[in-house]
TrEMBL record:
Keywords: Signal. Residues 1-23 form the signal peptide. SUPFAM superfamilies: Metalloproteases ('zincins'), catalytic domain (SSF55486), PDZ domain-like (SSF50156). InterPro entries: PDZ_sf, Peptidase_M4/M1_CTD_sf. The keyword Cytoplasm does not apply. This is Peptidase M61. It comes from Phenylobacterium koreense. The lineage of its organism: Bacteria, Pseudomonadati, Pseudomonadota, Alphaproteobacteria, Caulobacterales. It comes from the Bacteria.
């Protein structure tokens, strides 16, 4: 019954798109992956863009692509064979870059006026060499398992103007192995994105090649795809993820299970890292590891699809995703209370031992990439803020209400097209807690310590303390920013100095520092270049021992009381 209804609705939607498209300019993207050159980790994809209704004077910006986005280099400076033409013939293109900063773009313009249909094509190179810039989200083009994957924001030039386009995606798989297929965040093969901003392509995941799938045939909103051979069978973990997605659909009161795709790929730098994108998430695995290890990321990224709301800072989206990443799977019966506790204590340990955990919120964005201890604050402090808030709401309402009610209300506001600003959030806090709500919020933004009550995570858990050696690189963290990383301000008594690192050493590394910061046993492995020689230095990036808050199982409380 339900299925039939949605099928009919989908057909109607297709018809109305088709009639609207007649009045719409089109933006068509054709992707033609080159033969996958797996052993060398290199390859390419030919991209052809067709825009209708162009009317641009000479020198007007036509197309753009970030050069660097989220510390990730794109193909803006490495693409080749760039050609453009309109009805009058070849269009010579020139480009200009924004000033170099954390996020900056290249802008292409034509040397003469352009009218009507514009066709632009180029070859985007693929190179699996770990990026020099260090850790970033897994956006870049990669080749593996005789196919490729990428996020649009690293390789698809987009129109400079913000006008709506009827966006079409086409694939040419003729250079790939027989049996190859293509998919994206918008579905399998050639698809229409409908009318809207062309910028949607920037948040789209693309994958093509001999793909593996779970389930073999999709029966709900959930599906998963991957290339190559991960070091574990993804199917059982994807079955777990599918169950969780169904459960969360109910929790967030979605009227129907929304389409949701998991794209799995190899990550040489930050195995387990992921990125939430349109209707999908991209998650990654390393040379070793298990599906179990992915579950935290899978839950975290899935939560983003409901609770990443416009108009709110990172403290909101990342904070609630960390707060709920163990809690919702435990409530769904998909994680044990002890597994939930371990995840909670990882967050608590990293937050309470963080030497910079009093950094005000307004300093986080400008300093986001310069120091991992700042980068993790929206996650860790945000999660503890939501935990404190949850405890206060439960207490104030005599157990009748919780953070869930506010979170679901915000999600429903977005569903109805209402604003989801910080002011809207504060209004909910005032309703629940009076002035104590905004006061807590302001304290969080100022950088004050967020400390849940002993029973802040329910009757099953009680607050305690533990000891941990504080994360400390042993040198100025900004040494690790940018393409060339030169060690400076080395502390003479640090583990780094003891391991032989020196000021002036040029280093590279292939690890995610937030992961190293979160794991007290994790060593930092640097490739050091000094006086023309390159050699490894490995050390435990830890300093003084500090006391941190932790939670433990309360004696005599059964598992059944933990999920509330
Ligand atoms: Zn996140």
């Amino acid at each position: 019954m339900r299925k039939g209804f949605f099928l009919a609705a989908a057909l109607l939607a297709t018809v109305s798109h088709a009639s609207m498209a007649m009045a719409q300019e089109r933006f068509e993207v054709l992707l033609k992956p080159g033969a996958a050159d797996q052993p060398d980790g290199v390859g390419h994809v030919y991209v052809t863009l067709r825009m209708t209704g162009v009317d641009a004077p000479a020198g007007a910006p036509l197309l753009t692509l970030p050069v660097v986005i989220a510390n990730t280099a794109t193909v803006a400076t490495t693409l080749t064979e760039l050609k453009a033409s309109d009805a009058a013939g070849d269009v010579p293109l020139t480009y200009k870059d924004d000033p170099v900063s954390l996020v900056y773009a290249r802008h292409w313009s034509a040397a003469r006026p352009v009218r009507g249909d514009l066709t632009v094509s180029y070859r985007a190179p693929i190179d699996n060499t770990p990026p020099k810039r260090g850790s970033g989200p897994p956006y870049q083009l990669r080749t593996e398992g005789r196919g490729l994957s990428a996020v649009g924001n690293t390789f698809i030039l987009l129109p400079e103007n913000a006008q709506p386009y009827d966006v079409q995606l086409r694939w040419d798989l003729s250079s790939l192995d027989a049996g190859s297929a293509a998919t994206s965040s918008y579905g399998d093969g050639d698809v229409s994105l409908g009318v809207g901003p062309a910028g949607r392509l920037a948040r789209t995941v693309f994958m093509a090649g001999p793909m593996h799938r779970y389930p073999q045939t999709a029966h709900g909103g959930f599906s998963a795809v991957w290339l190559g051979t991960p070091p574990f069978d993804p199917a059982p973990t994807m079955a777990w993820t599918e169950k969780l997605h169904g459960w969360m659909t109910g929790f967030f009161r979605d009227p129907a299970e929304p389409p949701y795709r998991v794209f799995l790929r190899y990550n040489p730098i930050n195995a387990g890292g992921g990125a939430a994108l349109t209707n999908s998430f991209l998650t990654t695995y390393g040379k070793t590891g298990s599906g179990e290890a992915l579950k935290g990321t899978l839950a975290h990224e899935m939560i983003h699809t409901w609770t990443s709301l416009d108009g709110l800072g990172q403290w909101f989206g990342e904070g609630n995703a960390v707060f709920y990443q163990g809690l919702l799977p435990m409530r769904a019966g998909l994680l044990s209370p002890d597994e939930y506790l371990a995840d909670l204590n990882d967050t608590a340990r990293r937050y309470y031992s963080n030497a910079l955990n009093d950094t005000p919120d307004d300093q986080i964005a400008p300093r986001f990439w310069e120091d991992t201890r700042i980068r993790v604050l929206p996650y860790d402090r945000g999660a503890m803020y939501f935990a404190v808030l949850d405890g206060k709401i439960r207490k104030a309402s005599g157990g009748e209400r919780s953070l869930d009610d506010l979170m679901i209300e915000m999600v429903e506001r977005e569903r109805k097209g209402l604003s989801t600003s910080e002011a809207d959030w504060l209004a909910l806090l005032i309703r629940e807690l009076g002035q104590a709500g905004p006061d807590l919020h302001a304290a969080m933004l100022r950088g004050e310590l967020m400390l849940p009550e002993s029973d802040g995570f329910g009757p099953c858990f009680t607050r305690t303390t533990g000891k941990v050696r504080r994360f400390d690189l042993g040198f100025e963290p900004k040494s690790l920013v940018g393409d060339v990383k030169t060690i400076r301000d080395l502390k003479p008594d640090s583990e780094a100095a003891k391991a032989g690192l020196r000021n002036g050493d040029v280093v590279t590394y292939a690890q995610a520092l937030d992961g190293v910061q979160g794991n007290p046993q994790a060593k930092l492995n640097l490739q050091v270049t000094r006086e023309g020689k390159t050699f490894p230095i490995s050390y435990l990036p830890r300093g003084e021992e500090v006391e941190v808050y932790q939670w433990a199982r309360a004696a005599g409380v059964p598992d059944s009381a933990c999920a509330r």
